[in-house]
Write a structure and sequence with these properties.
Elements lengths: L2 H40 L4 H35 L3 H5 L1
């Protein structure tokens, strides 16, 4: 395997990692933003109020997007193990 192929494989791996983590990170950010806005408007500064809704939202989004994540991971892994990585390069 040439260095160019290795770099391309790592680039594709990082893209997959970003795509798989994006729904969870975006939902956590949105939940934090909404809870912070609600805390600012109501002047309630409770620390558990920030953590619990974020954990619940991330859990729900994980359960909803888990089939999509597994499907992408299986597809990526099968292409990698089947020697079909040359299809990724084009």
């Amino acid at each position: 395997m040439s260095p160019d192929q290795t770099v391309e494989m790592m680039r594709r791996l990082l893209i997959e990692a970003v795509l798989l983590s994006a729904p969870l990170l975006l939902s956590a950010c949105m939940a934090s933003l909404l809870v912070s806005l609600a805390q600012t408007l109501t002047s309630v500064q409770e620390q558990t109020l920030t953590a619990v809704p974020r954990l619940v939202v991330v859990f729900v989004v994980t359960m909803v997007s888990l089939p999509w994540m597994v499907h992408r991971l299986i597809g990526y892994t099968l292409h990698l193990f089947a020697g079909g990585f040359h299809r990724f390069l084009g």
